[in-house]
Write a structure and sequence with these properties.
The protein is an all-alpha fold. It has helices at 6-9, 21-40, 42-48, 52-58, 63-66, 74-95, 97-118, 130-143, 159-175, 184-217, 220-232, 249-262, 269-284; strands at residues 148-151, 155-158. α7 (97-118) packs across α8 (130-143) and α10 packs antiparallel against α12 (249-262). The longest helix is centred in the C-terminal third of the chain and has 34 residues, at 184-217.
Length: 285
């Protein structure tokens, strides 16, 4: 895959210092893991790679995380670093570092869990960040479905179509039986985890937070406090101009569904203004 369209995401020279925090940290961590693997050798993979039998039989529960930072060869490493940079930068710019970390490791864990479910007694180690990065591909495609990426540096595809294509490829080769040393179902697990999290859990979490804030603001104590303060501090000055109406949660839900279905570019100016006011209110509370 090659970088995104320059007119949409910038085509300046690579600037490591200007990278967002989470992407930069993950790039360095993957490089460090690769160097340690080259120094220590095979024993490093046996301890920190994902070996399903070790996880299910010996409860080596660190492996579903540590395997993400080990790569078998330089090309494997460079490809994953490249795709992490390509998809990670615009996604982190939208979400911030904290949410990006959470999503990245959740997709990595989903990929590991899928591999363990498919082959719980396997002694073959699984390594690499591909499961998490396939999840990032899904996130990018849901945020920017119309953005064009060049598959294998040659074939232009919309991000949404590319995500579907890669999912179908992984499913086909996964169902065709063992092939090479690629954990196809781990890739699918990372993609499925990312999609399910964004399509249902992320929206459900936003709704739950909004509901809780609404309950807090409508408690009897809150209403009494507001009434008492109003009675004790009468004002003879003209009432200040009323602030813009707070966005209704029904509108926020509708806009969130629209973003997930058609991407940020599909929003109107009014919808963008609503989301901006909702974001500011959430940060202030």
């Amino acid at each position: 895959m090659t970088p995104l369209q320059a007119q949409s995401f910038g085509g300046g020279p690579f600037d490591f210092r200007g990278l967002p925090r989470a992407v930069k940290t993950l790039l360095l961590a993957n490089i460090a893991g690769f160097i340690l693997f080259q120094i220590v050798g095979g024993q490093f993979v046996e301890i920190f790679g994902l070996i399903p039998r070790q996880v299910t039989g010996s409860l080596w529960l660190w492996q579903p995380l540590t395997y993400l930072f080990i790569h078998g060869g330089l090309l494997h490493l460079l490809f994953n670093l490249f795709t992490l940079w390509m998809f990670g930068v615009p996604v982190e710019a939208q979400w911030g570092s904290r949410e990006f970390y959470k999503f990245y490791f959740l997709c990595g864990l989903g990929a590991a869990a899928t591999q363990i479910l498919v082959a719980p007694h396997s002694d073959i180690p699984v390594i690499g960040a591909s499961g998490a990065i396939y999840g990032l591909l899904v996130a990018f495609a849901m945020l920017y479905p119309e953005a064009v990426i060049y598959v294998y540096f040659f074939i232009p595809l919309k991000a949404a179509h590319a995500a579907i294509l890669f999912g179908l490829i992984e499913f086909y080769f996964g169902m065709s039986g063992p092939g090479g040393h690629i954990a196809r179902f781990a890739h699918l697990g990372g993609m499925a985890t990312g999609y399910l999290y964004l399509r249902w859990w992320w929206i459900a979490k936003i709704k739950a937070k909004a509901l809780w804030k609404n309950i807090e603001s409508n408690t009897p104590m809150g209403g009494l406090f507001s009434w008492t303060r109003a009675r004790r501090t009468p004002s003879r000055r003209p009432a200040p101009p009323r602030p813009p109406a707070e966005p209704e949660m029904e509108d926020i839900d509708r806009i969130l569904d629209k973003i997930l279905a058609s991407g940020l570019d599909s929003l109107t100016d009014k919808e963008r203004d609503l989301m901006e006011r909702y974001s500011k209110r959430a940060k202030a509370s």
